[in-house]
UniProtKB/TrEMBL annotation:
This is Xaa-Pro peptidase family protein. PANTHER family: AMINOPEPTIDASE (PTHR46112), XAA-PRO AMINOPEPTIDASE P-RELATED (PTHR46112:SF2). Gene3D superfamilies: Creatinase/methionine aminopeptidase superfamily, Creatinase/prolidase N-terminal domain. CDD domains: APP_MetAP. SUPFAM superfamilies: Creatinase/aminopeptidase, Creatinase/prolidase N-terminal domain. Residues 9-130 form the Creatinase N-terminal domain. Signal peptide: none annotated. Residues 139-371 form the Peptidase M24 domain. InterPro entries: Creatin/AminoP/Spt16_N, Creatinase/aminopeptidase-like, Creatinase_N, Pept_M24, Peptidase_M24B.
Length: 387
């Protein structure tokens, strides 16, 4: 990755550090290393408020460069900082919301005379929420590859398929277009393999995970997504696979049908498209996630679909979420979310309705916030496509 891009990202973090009088940050979690160093390593990136970042690597052992140093254990960090002419920080920030307790306390113990601040996770997620031009370019490339894979979905359907078999074929399409496969998530709220394919009443199955729609899954050890149901005439099939092509999680859902669906399915789908149109027209810098959520709820309530919106029984209380190196970043389009949109933010908007005995309808696209409004990243047909 270009050093100028990495410097831009690190300087965004430094600006936030300066506002909280933080002298240095120490990053060791994979996603934060990708953001600040451009790759995954086993080791640490030490970011002082002023001066270059230093990389301390345990593995792999073939990485070299200016300010790159080998290390065996974190206890070496203070002496190595002194060796390279760096002052021991008075206030050091760690990834408090991501590190295991033992690792956090071990790192903190390496700096006994330093005030340790656990705010590293929230601060870097704040920096990551506004994308650089290079990141936006990667999103656009991911969205194009995502759309190419989805365009081929009808070609891999065969009569008598289960949702699992259909999902496998779509996953293959995604991989052939370059999808990396891994589905990175912040926190413990979600686990999934690439995404979900939901049909019929499985779309209404409640999940412990914080998804828009759940699904029973194939085993209690991973309760979400396809459950082996046969794809039946008169039922919808929602494909929601994450498009991680360059490390960034592009998000898109499209609905297919086995034969003709009941008319109410097409009516409900149109309501979701109206939600998308309403939110997209309203979204711009300064508007909050709560504002957009309330506007969406107004549309579905007036149309009479509030009881089926974002699930049945167990309903998701959001309509969209930030995306980036992880699938659940800021901003969140939900009640009480006062964070204002800013140019460079990227989010997925996913209004969805579930019909009993039929399945899910709706739409999901990825959007970038511009100075004037929104740029739709995922460009693909949005009607229900008959298989």
């Amino acid at each position: 990755m270009l050093q100028s891009e990495l410097k831009l990202r690190r300087d965004k973090i430094r600006a936030l550090m300066a506002g909280q009088k933080i002298d240095a940050a120490l990053f060791t979690c994979n996603v934060n290393l990708i953001y600040t160093y451009g790759r995954v390593i086993s080791g640490y990136l030490y970011l002082p408020l002023e001066g270059p970042a230093h990389i301390f690597i345990k593995r792999p052992n073939n990485v070299s460069g200016e300010f790159v140093h080998p290390i065996r254990k974190p206890e070496q960090l203070p002496d190595l900082l002194k060796e390279y002419g760096l002052a021991i920080p008075a206030r050091l920030m760690l990834e408090g919301d991501e590190l295991p307790f033992n690792e956090y306390t071990r790192l903190a113990a390496c700096f006994p005379d330093t005030e340790i601040l656990p705010c590293g996770t929230s601060l870097i997620r704040r920096a990551r929420s506004v994308k650089t031009e290079m990141e936006l370019g990667l999103f656009r490339r991911s969205a194009a590859a995502h759309a190419r894979a989805y365009a081929q979905i009808p070609s891999v359907y065969a009569e008598g398929m289960t949702d699992r078999a259909f999902s496998i074929e779509i996953e293959r399409l995604m991989r052939r277009e370059g999808c990396l496969g891994i589905f990175r998530v912040f926190g413990r709220s979600m686990e999934i393999f690439m995404g979900s394919v939901l049909t019929g009443d499985n779309a209404a199955a409640p999940s412990p995970y914080d998804f828009a729609l759940g699904g029973e899954g194939l085993d209690p050890s991973l309760p979400g997504g396809a459950n082996g149901m046969l794809l039946k005439p008169g039922q919808s099939v929602m494909v929601d696979l994450g498009g991680n092509f360059f490390g960034y999680m592009c998000d898109m859902s499209r609905v297919y049908s086995v034969g003709r669906l009941p008319q109410q399915a097409y009516d409900a789908h149109q309501v979701c498209l109206e939600v998308q149109e309403t939110v997209a027209a309203m979204a711009k810098p300064g508007v909050t996630g709560e504002d957009l959520y309330n506007a969406a709820i107004g549309v579905v309530t007036r149309a009479g679909w509030a009881d089926h919106f974002m699930g049945i029984g167990q309903q998701a209380k959001f309509i969209g979420h930030g995306i980036g190196l992880e699938i659940n970043e800021a901003p969140v389009l939900a009640p009480r979310m006062k964070q204002e949109l800013e140019p460079g933010m990227v989010f997925a908007l996913e209004p969805k309705i579930v019909l009993p005995e039929v399945g899910p309808v709706g739409i999901e696209n990825s959007w970038a916030v511009t100075a004037e409004g929104l740029e739709k990243l995922t460009q693909a047909p949005e009607e229900i496509i008959e298989l």
